[in-house]
Amino acid sequence: MEAEIFNATCCSNYIRVNLDAITKNVSILRSLAKKHTGMIAAVKGGCHGHGGIPVTQHLSRLGVEEFAVATVAEGRSLRKAGIQEKMHVLGNFKSREIDKYLENNLIPTVSWAEDLKAVDKEKLSQANGGKFRVNIKVDSGMSRFGVQCEDLHSLVQTIDSLDVQINSIFTHFAGGIMDREGNQAQLDRFLDCSEDYVARNIPRHASATSGCCQQIGTDLDYIRPGGAIYGLCSVNDIPSSELFQELGFRPAMSVVAEPTFYKLLPAGRRIGYDGLYTTKEPEWIANIACGWSDGYRRKLSLGVGAVKNNRTGELCPIVGRVSMDSCTVRLPRKPEASDTYSLLTDDFAEKTSYTSMARILNAATYEITGTLSTRLPRVYTSGDNIVDIMQAVDYSN
Questions:
Q1: Cβ burial, residue 252 (10 Å; 0-12/13-18/19+)
Q2: Residue 219 and which of 11, 57, 268, 392 are 20 to 30 A apart at CA?
Q3: 323 exposed, middle or buried (CB, 10 Å; 0-12, 13-18, 19+)?
Q4: What is the pTM (predicted TM-score) of this model?
Q5: DSSP H helices in 118-237
Q6: 67, 83, 153, 290 from 74: Cα distances, Å
Q7: Of the candidates 214, 326, 318, 211, the residue with the CA atom closest to the CA atom of residue 261
Q8: pLDDT digits over 41-95, tens only?
Q9: What value does the CA radius of gyration of the chain take, rounded to a whole number of Å?
Q10: Tell me: the pLDDT tens digits for 182-233?
Q11: Average pLDDT of 261-268?
C-alpha cells in the first residue's frame, strides 16, 4: 500500500489516518457512557490535526449525534462539506458573528449576556422562525471563560427575557485522567448549580476525554470527547498513558516517509546547520523531506528524536538540526530501496509515539498531531484499502 500512496500523493511523506482505529475508539467511548447518553464529538482543530472534513464525515457515518468546533469558520467549513448534524461552537460568542451563526445554523456558547444583548432582536431568530439557540458554559473550576456557578440563574433569566432558547448547559474539567478528585469536585459543583434546569429538559454535559476515561459525568445527556476519538490521551504522563491503553484506545495517526537521498559519509563530516553533529566513522546518512514547517519539531534534533524503519523496526536517530524542510537520519547500514520510515508511530512506543514526543518536548499530547501542517497530505485507510486522500496544501482541514 505504501508505494501506491507515495505515487498517489506525489509526496515523499504523508500522514496516514486509520479510520478503523477511530471506529474502535468511538465504540470504547460509547461503552464508557450510559446507554441514554449521546455523543458530541469535538472536531475542532481539524480533528486534532487528522483532517476535519473527512474525519467528521466518518464520524457522521458512525452515527455520532452532534459535533463541536472552536470557531465559526470551522463550523462553516463543515457545513460546506455537507455535515448536517447539530453543530456547537465552543468559543465564547461575539455579537459581530451573528450573521454567520444564522447562515450556517451553528449554536454558540455564551458565558454572559452582553453580546446577546448587543444583537438586534429581529436577528435572534432562525430563517424558519424558530428561536436562536445558545449553549451556556459554566465555570466550575477551570477558570477560563464560563459563567460562575452562583451567577447561572441570573444569566438564564436574562437569556429567557431575550426569547433565546437554551440548547444545553455544560462545563469542562481542568484535571487530567489521574485527577479524579479535582474533576469530581467540578462535576459536583456543576450538577448542584444546574439541577434546577433538569425539569426544563435542558441537556447537560461535562465529560470530555479525561472524564470519559474516569467515567465522571458519563451518565449525563451527552459526553463530549475529543482526543480519545483519535486515540490521543489527554495528558502525557506515563500512568495516564498506561490507563488510556488499558481502556483499549488506539492512536489513529502515523507519519510515514521515504528518504529522498542517502549517502555514505566518511568520519569527520559535519552535518546540518551549524555543523552540530560530526560523523565518528563512515556513516550512512539519509535525508527525509520533513521539517519544522511540516510540524516536525526542531527540538527533536541531535538525537533527541528518532524515526522507525518500518521493515526492520530499528530506531534511527535524527542527527544534525531539523531544518525547515528536512531532517537527516543516521542509518545502521545502507537502506533497501523500498525502506520507509515512520516519524510518528500509531502506538505508545518510546521516541516515536505522540505520548513519548510530548514528554520529550514538554508539550501537550494534542500539540503533536494538531500542529502538523497541511503541507503533508492526509491519507485515510480502512483495512488494506485507501478510502480517501486529501492532497497537500489543496484542502482545508
A1: buried
A2: 57
A3: middle
A4: 0.95
A5: 152-161, 180-194, 209-214
A6: 11, 12, 31, 27
A7: 326
A8: 999 999 999 999 999 999 999 999 999 999 999 999 999 999 999 999 999 999 9
A9: 23
A10: 999 999 999 999 999 999 999 999 999 999 999 999 999 999 999 999 999 9
A11: 97
C-alpha–C-alpha distance, residues 69 and 11, integer Å: 30
Cβ atoms within 10 Å, residue 188: 12
Q: Which amino acid is at 28?
A: I
**Cell 470551522 identifies what position?**
74
* 253-257 vs 13-18, strand pairing mode: antiparallel
Name the catalytic one among 273, 277, 354, 366. Answer: 273
Task: State mean pLDDT over 222-248.
Answer: 96
User: Residues 231, 235, 236, 238: is their CA dihedral positive or negative?
Assistant: negative
Length of the chain: 397
What is the per-residue pLDDT for 241?
95
In sequence order, the 6+-apart residues with CB closer than 8 A to the CB of 41 are 26, 56, 59, 64, 66, 67, 68, 224, 225, 226, 229
How big, in percent rounded to 5, are the helix, strand and coil portions of the chain?
35, 25, 40
> 17 forms bridges with which residues in the sheet?
253, 380
Q: Which three cell numbers stand for residue 100?
A: 454567520
pLDDT of residue 37: 98
